[in-house]
Amino acid sequence: MKDILLIFGGILGGLSVLFGAFGAHALKNKFSEELQKSFETGVRYQMYHALIIIISGVIFPFIKTSQQIMGWCFILGVILFSFSIYGLCLSSANNNKWKFLGPITPLGGLLLLIGWILFTINASEIAIYL
Predict the structure, then answer these.
(1) Of 28, 43, 45, 54, whose CB neighbour count within 10 A is largest?
(2) What are the transmembrane regions (predicted)?
(3) pLDDT tens track of the chain, all 130 residues?
């Protein structure tokens, strides 16, 4: 599981840099100010969670089920949250909003929240031994 987290963390972090540059430059003239802000939110959350995915892969042994669930919540959460925002922004800019993505964003956010709760629980258990 540690290797999966480190790989996904690296990929998601790198993609957030790519998507951030793409949004700031290639899509700047295509997006309204509101769409630009939404796209940037997706990029920002993706980077934050790429970092916590990498940190989790480094500090946790992943011998507990809660640690594995935490890792998958972060990975799936960032994909559902950020990528649904990207899809909504791109489709809206083309006047063909993919409304089916709307409910996916909060589901991704819920998974991220669960990941953070599990991170806090697992980190507090590790801190006891330090």
Answers:
(1) 43
(2) 6-27, 47-63, 69-88, 100-121
(3) 999 999 999 999 999 999 999 999 988 889 999 999 999 999 999 999 999 999 999 999 999 999 999 999 999 999 999 999 999 999 999 999 999 999 999 999 999 999 999 999 999 987 776 5
